[in-house]
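Possible race condition, two jobs.
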Amino acid sequence: MSARTALGNLLARTRRRALLDALAQLLPVPLALAALLWRWPGGWAAAAVATAGLVAVIAVALRRRRHFDRNWLVQQLDAARSDLDDSSGLLLADDAALSPLQRLQRDRLEQRLRDRPAPDLRPSWSTGAIVPAWLALAATCLVVALWPAARPAIVDAPPAASAAAAVEAPQLLSQSLQLQPPAYTGVASSTTQTLEAEAPVGSTLRWRLRYAPQPRAVDLVFHDGRRIALQREGGHWTAALALQASTLYRVVPAGVAGAESAPLYRLDAVPDLPPRVRVLAPERGLTLLAPSQRDWLLQFEALDDYGVSTRARLLLTRTEGTGENIRFQEHVRVLQGRGDARSRRFELRLRPADFGLQRGEDLVARLEVLDNRAPQPQLARSASVILRWPPEPVLGAEGLDGLARQVLPAYFRSQRQIIIDAEALLAERPQLAADEFERRSDLIGVDQRLLRLRYGQFLGEESEGGRAPPTSDLPTSDLPTSDAPAADDAQAHDAPHDDGHDHAAEGAAPAAGFGNVGDVLEAFGHTHDIAEAATLLDPQTRETLRKALGEMWQSELHLRQAAPGEALPYAYRALELIKQVQQAERIYLQRVGTQLPPVDESRRLGGDRSGLRNRALPALAAEEADAALAAAWQSLGTTGVDTLPATLDALERWTGAQRDRLDDPLAWVAAIDALRQDPGCADCRATLRGLVWSALPRPAGAFGRRTDADAAGRYLDALHAAREAP
């Protein structure tokens, strides 16, 4: 016999053994069902079940038999015989498909099989399953044969009453709740035998209930009014739900009295919190670059309840320039995290020279991390850390120079916005009506006026300026721009006006000759721009700022006349002058010392308490209690049930309105429902009353009055008595 024929016979015996083993294991099941059905419902049901069972058993057995094919035989031979050189497939291959070298190898394998035949690869009999199955079949047949025949019962009750009594209420025999968290959490699925559970948001819940006798329908009724109908699968009722928020529900089977008032079960949805990013290095938010420092170490730690992504983005921002000329450059670096998925560390050593950092500039870094939530991950950013290269210090400053401060006033940041608004208005002019264009231009002019007045404070000004001289034959554009008044303000100055300063009376003759600048300002203007009123700026800076005010006034004039195009040149020149003022960056502050009130030495350590008395402390304002809560607290304290429904309805409305204020609104819903279902339950009433008490505002704390003879007073009195004693 050739090796090919021997291997074919071995494969046939193996497949036959597998078929017989499967039939021996599975045949007792349909036979037992057929025996039971033959004893009670009748022979036709037993025949149908036996036929269907036999067909199913044969199908399963044939499927198991197909598992043992040529590939299986080759794998088993290679695993059992190492001398076959993992070439057993050549023994079953066709001659035409083999090369000369493969035929030579096949001859060698056949010779080895003739010397030592192939092992018996048939699977062993499954006695551990076959014997119990046939014993159970024999026991079932014995019970069926010995079970007494049913006899019709003779009752005196009417047929309708007998049928009603025969119907029993469905009873819950078993229950289970399967929890399948989302895959990204890494939490394994679990099954609990209770109907309450706590699971991550997005988990899939599957109910599996079994009743006897079977009800017509089973529903899950939630506290917010939703209903989910369970589906019957064989002898069980099943349903599935994706848990998105915490909720309460009850199981309501049809035909069960009081099912609508059954206890509520609670499902808690655990939210997926966003990741938390902590800065490990540097330890401080602001780091000054040392002269010998060449790199900057950054270390971050990202924590999350279910894990963070392995990659994170480091956002770097470099500042260039100072004052209004600051520009920003953005850079992004991708970091690879190390460590556990729930606690990853990100580290990077930066070289400030790579970013072109210069003296007086900053390098700001912050880490951006994503967690593993699907489908939409959550993003978190760390606190910003700053690397600052300090500017050059001012050396050798003495006197007032030692009080120089680097200042960037907030007022130097608005002229650019006025220019941007004016240019935007010009771009939108074709789409705007004439009235709307004039209104918006006037509003920008108002902003320009406010900015001009703010800058005027640095020159000691308070308002628009003084009155125009009565004889002014110069055009408006030739007047001194820093004191040029607006039209509406000029009218206000023409009327009698008391500005709170000691100006000369109207009509008073000038004290000096014609052309004296000081006399002209004394008679017609406000002399605020004096050295004592504008000591923050040096004369050159004040002159530059005065020119900027003049350009602002001209810009305001054209904006008020609905001509933003003509106002832009003045606004640009004002911006350039402001930049020149800003580049000075030095103001001088008056050197002052600490001035404390003098101490009355005569009253120190004298023990004289005359004139001292107790002061009544003001009572703290108590927070007004909610009327619905106060009424519910009073009503729940009584044992009567007449007003209980109205109280519970009021509390239910209050809970729905104050849901965001409560720590656990579902506990309120459950307590109200429990007391509504059982008004006489003392524990339910106490639980709800405790929740109401926790929501009531705390009463204001009271202060105890201090006694007249306190400890210090008694001590001093004893000293006086000892001193006056002879």
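Job #2 (started ~2 s after job #1):
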Amino acid sequence: MTTLARPFALPRPSSRLAVIVPTAADLPWLAGYAVAFWVAHYVAAEWGGRGFYSLLYPAAGLRMALLWRRGPRLVLGVAATEVAVQFVTGIIDPLSAGFATQLGGVVRPAFAYALVVLLVRRMTDHATTSLSVAPMPLGLASVGAPVAAAMAALPWSLWRPDLTGVSGMREVIASLTGFIVGDLLGVLLLTPPLLWLAELASGSASRPARPNIAGVVEAVLVLLFSFASEVLLASIGLGTPHTPLLLAVAWIGLRFGRTASWLAIVAVAAMTLPQTAMPMRVDARLALHMSLASIMVVGYLAGSFSDAQARTRSDLQRRDRLLFQAERLKTLRAMSVAVIHEISQPLSTLAIEAKHLHEITVSADVEIASTAALIDRKAAALSTLVRRLRRFGGRTVDKPTPLPLATLIATAAALAEPEARSHDVTLTIEPVAPDLVVLAQEVELAQAIVNLVRNAVQASGDGRVSLAATQVGDQARIVVTNRCRRNRPDQAGMGVGVLVARAIVEAHGGSLARVGDDIGEARATILLPLIGEPQ
């Protein structure tokens, strides 16, 4: 077996320490990663050469899949696992003079990958283009992480080229180029299927659609035609240009999405990698792998863009349906307001008379007095409900006014409690400080909170939903919490109410975020600026 091309000493690639320290739930993932990393590291030796990084590095795909799946907070665990594996295998010698440099070289790529994952997620959270629509963020991270890891290694490669067994600027550049190419191939070949398998194991993977026979035939013909073009050009002495394959894979990705483009990439790699695993000149092998990396990057990004566009079209169609439903609700609201207006005065009169009846029958027979008291309570409750509905639905636009948070929470709870009871869900309202005041349109903001509570009620797995409001600095924080079914924090309700709630909250100068943890608890958090007490 040839010498290991990517030495273990030259690795592949929130503010508090507790946030990034691995938890007990991460240990099985790290244990599996350790075994897979050891195997993948030695597989890479088949595409190595003296003093150069491997031109196919599967361990990079494992690293990217783990950091993307579990989050960049796992970077310390990933780096520690890679260091431990290389200690156990004896590649890193803690007694050597260059131990510190070797250790830094091990952890540097892991931190570069985690940083790219974090930056891409932060960027896509605030982006409004198709780059923020899945699976484009993963495609950007898959291409950016290998480049970032190589750039992080650039200063050390220039300062100590002997660490990679090279000498001279030409070999240093070739070495770093091999670094990028090897990581790109490993990431684009392994990360997509590994993430899909992880989702399949957790039950969150969508069932693949039945392939269209016409589409399969078209993709196969395009790929065969590109292979035939390359063979023809090579046979007449024009070399082996890879432009036909690149165009074919890009076409397949744009036409049929990421899955089809990845399958085309695998087919191209299956034709190329067995040839480059055999002894051949370094420049020829590097040229082939650079062409293969270009085909993979273009094809994978094209497929990701196609899937993102399809998801965007689906979201637009869904929003169109919501707008149509909103128009129907607008008409229903107008009819309801008219009905409420007609019955409000008779109900108020009935409540007054029922109260009077209760007062004059206090000293009467016990049965008569209790009946009169019951009529009084029911009439008063019905009258209060009608007044609240009239106030909630009767005003279309009002100016923002100072609104005590306790009043807002009480209004939202009164509107949401009947639906919670109908679903056998207990709605818990935490006490709210009376001095918390926001500048808001009461009706709209109450609607936002009601929408979030409704979603939490629909997704509740243990029959409990809590609503709390507290102060955080100069902001008011309103939190709706529920435990999702089957420990799935991503199942936080229908999602329709969230779109409406986010628009309302952002119009009030606030923000809305939904997060879930590993035990299935989902939290929708509203942050609103506080003002002084109302006059």
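Confidence is low (pLDDT under 50) at residues 1-18, 487-495.
Logs attached separately.
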